[in-house]
Amino acid sequence: MATLLHRLSRVLRHGWRSRTLPSQLRGAALERLTQKVAQSEQAHSGQVRLCLEGGLPPSYLWRGARARERAVTLFGKLRIWDTEHNNGVLIYLLLADRAVEIVADRGVARCVAPQQWERVVASMAERLKSGEFEQALNCAIDEVSALLQQHFPASERLVDGLGNELPDAPVIRP
What we know:
By secondary structure, the chain is of the alpha/beta class. 52% of the residues lie in helices and 13% in strands.
C-alpha cells in the first residue's frame, strides 16, 4: 500500500510541477543563465547545456525511473555527445524532485573523476533545498566551467577554428 501511495504521490507532484517553472527561473533569470553559459565557454573549448524540467513524463513515472535515466536520454536527444572534442556537459535539474544530474561526454569523463561531479551536484543540492534555483545553476556552471577550463582550455577551440557548437540558452521542458 505504501508503495502505491508513494507512486501516486510522485505522479501528482510531477504532474503539478510540470506546468510551471519557479518564478526565480523565468524571464530575466533565463537570460542571465544564457549569458553565464556563453561567458563560461569563452574560457574553455567545452560545451555546457542546462536543461530544466518540471516533472518527468508519465512513461518514466510509471516505471519508477529516476532523474539520471532522463538526463542520459536528454543528453542524447539534445546531441550534446556530438561535439568535436567530445567535451559536452549537461547540467540537468528535475524540479519536481529537486534532483540534479550531470552527464559528461566521453572526452570529459576520461579527465574528470565521478567524485568531482558528485561534489558539484552536492553543492547544487544544498542551494536547491533553500529554493535558490538560479544561484544553484550559476554555481554549477562555474564549477563545471572550471573543470572544463582545466582539461579543455580555450586555446584548443581557437586553434581548431571551432565556434559555439551548442546553443547557450537553457532547455526548458514542461
